[in-house]
């Protein structure tokens, strides 16, 4: 009989979990910074005592003019010369302080810029929703451009449609926090006499597929699986007819916003320049 030795697979233990990072309290962080400063000062003093580092220059202030220590350091100098020496040293310390601060600020600019855009992206993506505003009686595009510029700065998507220089439809897609700022601008804007601003659409984006449709970058002529492109960056458009405006929204998957702007009731308490009894869009 031939005995076949079975192949034994080596036993591999499960990998150890990475150590959990402990988060210190503010009091613990302050205490650790104090300990680090004390240790750094002790190390500097030891290096100066051993001759490994140069001793810093004695710091003189105006109160030292009346003390004997300054006179012993400069025995041949008169009172006027001593004051000049002290004031020159103070000026050098001030200049060095500002130069150090400037270098530190320049070194932190890159991180500050990254943090600023990280905050913008987070606000533009958290709790995404679609909001539309209908503006009647708008004859100047200045306020519409203001809405467009602020929406683009907050990384929102959508479109501002100005139809026949009489009415406008503002459609914004993005995070709730970023849109709250735009709504505050709309509320506080000085609209012309006879203008009326209503919120006609507000819905949260909860479906992942729907969210990808809204936030994916639109490409000219590039149809997605749903047959529509993504919502573009905010821009001001002046279509000639209502049919052109509906086609523009349809290309971005927002045709239902147009129907809501024409037939749906007003949503929310946003009402600028309209009567309290007028609760529906004509």
From TrEMBL:
<dbReference type="InterPro" id="IPR013881">
    <property type="entry name" value="Pre-mRNA_splic_Prp3_dom"/>
</dbReference>
<feature type="domain" description="Small nuclear ribonucleoprotein Prp3 C-terminal">
    <location>
        <begin position="132"/>
        <end position="260"/>
    </location>
</feature>
<protein>
    <submittedName>
        <fullName>Uncharacterized protein</fullName>
    </submittedName>
</protein>
<dbReference type="GO" id="GO:0000398">
    <property type="term" value="P:mRNA splicing, via spliceosome"/>
</dbReference>
<keyword id="KW-0507">mRNA processing</keyword>
<keyword id="KW-0539">Nucleus</keyword>
<dbReference type="InterPro" id="IPR027104">
    <property type="entry name" value="Prp3"/>
</dbReference>
<keyword id="KW-0508">mRNA splicing</keyword>
<dbReference type="Pfam" id="PF06544">
    <property type="entry name" value="Prp3_C"/>
</dbReference>
<dbReference type="InterPro" id="IPR010541">
    <property type="entry name" value="Prp3_C"/>
</dbReference>
<feature type="domain" description="Pre-mRNA-splicing factor 3">
    <location>
        <begin position="7"/>
        <end position="106"/>
    </location>
</feature>
<dbReference type="Pfam" id="PF08572">
    <property type="entry name" value="PRP3"/>
</dbReference>
<dbReference type="GO" id="GO:0046540">
    <property type="term" value="C:U4/U6 x U5 tri-snRNP complex"/>
</dbReference>
């Amino acid at each position: 009989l031939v005995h076949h030795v079975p192949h034994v697979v080596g036993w591999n233990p499960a990998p150890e979990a990475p150590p959990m990072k402990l988060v210190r309290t503010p009091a613990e962080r302050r205490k650790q910074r104090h300990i680090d400063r004390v240790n750094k000062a002790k190390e500097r003093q030891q290096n100066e005592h051993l001759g490994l580092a140069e001793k810093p220059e004695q710091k003189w202030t105006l109160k030292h003019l009346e003390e004997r220590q300054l006179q012993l350091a400069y025995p041949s100098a008169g009172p006027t010369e001593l004051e000049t020496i002290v004031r020159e040293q103070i000026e050098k310390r001030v200049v060095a302080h500002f130069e150090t601060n400037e270098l530190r600020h320049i070194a932190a600019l890159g991180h500050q810029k990254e943090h600023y855009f990280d905050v913008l992206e987070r606000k533009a993506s958290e709790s995404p929703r679609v909001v539309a505003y209908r503006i009647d009686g708008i004859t100047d595009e200045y306020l519409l451009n203001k809405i467009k510029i602020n929406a683009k700065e907050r990384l929102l998507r959508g479109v501002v449609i100005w139809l026949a220089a009489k009415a406008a439809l503002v459609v914004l897609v993005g995070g709730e926090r970023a849109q709250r700022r735009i709504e505050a601008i709309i509320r506080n804007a000085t609209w012309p006499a006879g203008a009326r601003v209503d919120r006609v659409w507000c819905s949260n984006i909860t479906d992942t597929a729907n969210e990808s449709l809204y936030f994916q970058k639109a490409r000219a002529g590039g149809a997605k699986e749903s047959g529509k492109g993504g919502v573009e960056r905010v821009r001001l458009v002046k279509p000639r007819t209502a049919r052109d405006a509906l086609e523009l929204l349809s290309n971005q998957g927002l045709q239902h916003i147009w129907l809501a702007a024409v037939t749906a009731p007003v949503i929310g308490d946003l009402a600028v320049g309209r009567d309290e009894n007028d609760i529906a869009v004509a």
